[in-house]
Amino acid sequence: MNEELKELLLLEEIESKISQIEKKLTEIPAQIEKLNQEKENILSKLYNIDREIKNLELTKKEREIDIQTFQEKIKKIESILEKVRTNEEYKMYLREKAQAEEAILELEDEILKIMEDLENLKKEREILAVQVEKEKEEIDKNIKELQEEIPKLEEELKKLKEEEKSLRNRIAPEVLAKYETIKQRVKNKKVIAKVENTTCTGCYTLIPPKVYSQLLKGEQLLTCPNCGRYLHYEPE
Ligand SMILES: [Zn+2]
C-alpha cells in the first residue's frame, strides 16, 4: 500500500477515536447528574415514609395529652360532685363526666388505629430501607466508575492528540490540505473511501478502469474522480 495512504488511514482512525473520546467526556457529567437525581428520588421515598411516621407519632402524643386533660377534668368533676347540693347540678356534672369518658374512649380508639398504622409503616420502611440501600449502592458504584473513567479518557486523549500531531507533521502538506478539504465537504463521513467491487463506497459510483488499474498497483495516492475522496483498495 502507498505509504501516504497508510498514514492518512491512521490519521482518520486517530481522529475518529479522538472525537469518540471527546463525546464521551462531554456526556459523563450529564450521566453522573442523572444518576444523582435517581439516587435523590430513591432516597426521598425513605424520607417521605420517615416523615409520615414522625407525624403519626406526634399525633399519638397529642392524643395522649388530650386523654390526660380529660382524665384531670373527670377528677375535678368527681370532687365537685361530692359537694353538689341540687339534683339539677348533680345531673349536669354527671353528664359532663360521661361526655369526658366518651371522649377518652374515642381518643383511645384513635390511638389504637395510629399504633396499627405505625406498625405497618415501620414494616414497610424496613423493607424499603433494604431496597433503597441496594439501589443506592448500585448507583454509587456506577457514579464512581464514571468518575474514574474521566482521567483515563483524558490521558488517552492526550496521547492520541500527540500521535495525531506527529502524524500530521509526517504527511506532506498538500496531501494533508486535500484531506482537510475533503473532510470539510463530507462532514462526519469518511474522508478515505474503500473501493469494493470496483465501486467507491463514498459515493457509490464505479471507478473508471484506468484509475482502477492504478489502484491495483497500489503505488500512487488516488482520489475518486466523482466524489474526490481518497481511495483505499485492499486486495481480498
Ligand atoms: Zn467516490
UniProtKB/TrEMBL annotation:
Provide the transmembrane region boundaries. none
Q: Which UniProt keywords apply?
A: Coiled coil
Q: What Gene3D superfamilies does this protein map onto?
A: 1.10.287.1490
Pfam families in the record: CT398_CC (PF24481), Zn_ribbon_9 (PF02591)
Q: Which residues form a coiled coil?
A: 18-170
Q: Where is the CT398-like coiled coil hairpin domain?
A: 11-185
Where does the C4-type zinc ribbon domain start and stop, copy by copy?
199-231
In its UniProt entry, what is this protein called? C4-type zinc ribbon domain-containing protein
- Protein's organism: Venenivibrio stagnispumantis
